[in-house]
Amino acid sequence: MKTSDPSPSSIRRRLLSYLLAPLSLLLVIGVAIDHQVIVNPIYSAFDRSLSRAALAIAAHIRRTPDGQLDIPVPDRPLAPLRSNAHEQFFYRVSTLDGRTVAGTADLPLVAAEKNSKGLDYADVTYRGTALRLVSYRTTEAGEPLVVTAGEIPFRRDRALHRMDVSFGINNSIQMLLMLSTALLGINIALRPLRRLREQIVGRAPQALSPLSTAQVPAEVRPLVDSLNTLLVSVRDSSLAQQHFLANAAHQLRTPLTGLKAQLEVLGQEASGSPLQARITQLHSGIDRLAHTANQLLALARAEPSAHLASHFTRVELHPLIAEVISSSLDRALQRDIDLGAECQPVQVHGVYWLLRETLLNLLDNAIRHTPVGGQITLRCGTEAGQPFLEVDDSGPGIPLAERERVRERFYHGAGSDGDSCGLGLSIVDEAARAHGAHFSILDSHGRHGARMRIDFPLPGDDTPPAARPVVKN
Q1: What pLDDT is recorded for position 254?
Q2: How far from the centroid of its chain's Cα atoms is residue 126's Cα?
Q3: How does 131-144 read in b/e, with b if 16+ C-beta sit within 10 Å?
Q4: How confident is the model at residue 453 (pLDDT cuts 50, 70, 90)?
């Protein structure tokens, strides 16, 4: 069962995940610390407010002429002592023996503590409700009294909650700003990696020159150096292969030429003898071997990596077609093939001799497969602003199933003759890639046959084809 590869994790996502966890922890710790810092001041402020209420009640205590205590405070205090429905206020004035003089009789008293300066605080549960109490011990007309005031902690809890929310929002905003700053810093720090990626993606597959290390970070430098070492090794290997093919083909041509001359002399001497047929067969084999050597040399020279930017110039296609037709006209006449051209003036950015070799191979392939009395048409021009070159023949054509395989080296199709070495279309494919062009095999415009077409890059792009990414149609 085929499993899909997991999506690769990015450095940006990793760095953000590493930052997000500690920042979130710091946010929680910061809110907790702020909460602890503000609890005591808020509670102290509300305790002072509660103690002032007790002191205000004590200040209103008066003794009447008949010796009774007069406390002009209602049993149920109205606003502002009880400002809303959520707040409840209780008070009690009592003597030391527990007798209630005014207020709520069953309100608990706060036990006196040492060094309390007359004010004692406590949290109690009264009638099922949490209360904050303060007891103030004073003396009125020589009689000790205890003034107790209590309120539910609604206001202090609400204030504390608001402060927690305020600190939480403030810390969250600070964390987001820090995270945004960190993200900006990460993006800036990753710019050299993005430039390196664009440099690699924008290179053509056949471009084997080392990558620039001018702005590569020190952490990535060993990786780029290793990649450059690999590119140099692959380039040297490719060049060595090209040199071997070129040298081998070149070295073969000299002895083959001499051997062919000797066979011609031997054929003249053995004219009319039984050896004449064998000599003719040897002569044909030498011709095929020489043709194969020339094709190997052309294939080695057609490799995209074998061409520098200085090799490319502006090439007119219609004079090139006229030259190629002129060199192949005798072969076409021998087979009674109607060889013609339909040309529009057009220029391409390319290597002249390589385009000539490409066109010769296309025309040679067409002549080999076009029957006697057939027709071959060479065309050039522009279509939708894009230059093209094509060779259209009236031969048997190439089945769809074989159109990719015929590009392979030394492949012989079902209709190939024995004289073909199987390198012609491979040379065309390599030459097209060297020009940043696309080579396609199509049906002929006529009823039968094949149409070999090369679509060149749009005019105005003088970028060396070796530096262009290859786009597959």
Answers
A1: 73
A2: 66
A3: bbbbbbbbebeeee
A4: very high
Please state, in angstroms and rounded to a whole number, the distance separating the CA atoms of residues 98 and 109: 9
* β-pair type (338-343, 375-383): parallel
pLDDT at residue 464 tops 60 = no
- Alpha-carbon gap, residue 317 to 213, rounded angstroms: 40
430 and 466 in contact (C-beta within 8 Å)? Answer: no
Burial 194-221 (b: 16+ CB within 10 A, else e): eebeeeeeebbebbbeeeeeeebeeeee
Q: Which residue has the tokens 């024995």?
A: 418
| Distance, CA of 186 to CA of 182 (rounded, Å) | 6
Token pair recorded at residue 307:
């061409």
Q: For the residues 187-210, what does the mean pLDDT come to? A: 76
Does the structure show a pLDDT above 80 at 294? no
What tokens does 296 get? 């190997």
Q: CA–CA distance from 405 to each of 82, 98, 293, 357, 392 (Å)?
A: 96, 112, 22, 21, 19
| DSSP letter assigned to residue 400 | G
Residue 371 has pLDDT above 70, yes or no: yes
Q: In this structure, what token pair is assigned to residue 40?
A: 């005591």
Residue 418 has pLDDT above 80, yes or no: no
Residue in 290, 299, 368 with CA at minimum distance from that of residue 328: 368
- Give the pLDDT mean for 446-454: 85
Q: Do the Cβ atoms of 375 and 435 come closer than 8 Å? A: no
The amino acid present at 424, given as its one-letter code, is: G
d(CA 350, CA 435): 6
Mean pLDDT (the chain) is: 79
pLDDT at 112: 83
Average pLDDT over residues 396-408: 84
Per-residue model confidence (pLDDT) at position 392? 92
| CA-to-CA separations, 186 to 15, 176, 345, in angstroms, rounded | 8, 15, 53
Q: For the whole model, what pTM was predicted?
A: 0.50
- How far is the C-alpha of 7 from the C-alpha of 76, rounded, in Å? 71
The whole-angstrom separation of Cα 187 and Cα 232 is 31
d(CA 56, CA 110): 18
Distance CA 391, CA 362 (A): 7
Vertex 421, ends 415 and 426: CA angle to 5°?
90
Asked if residues 125 and 84 have their Cβ atoms less than 8 Å apart, the reply is: no
Is 51 in contact with 119 (CB distance < 8 Å)? yes
Q: What is the C-alpha to C-alpha distance for residues 242 and 307, in angstroms, rounded to an integer?
A: 12
Nearest to 137 by CA among 153, 114, 156, 104: 114
Pick from 214-218, 246-250, 277-281: least confident: 246-250
Which 8-state DSSP code applies to residue 334?
A: H
Q: 288 — phi, psi (to 5°)?
A: -65, -40
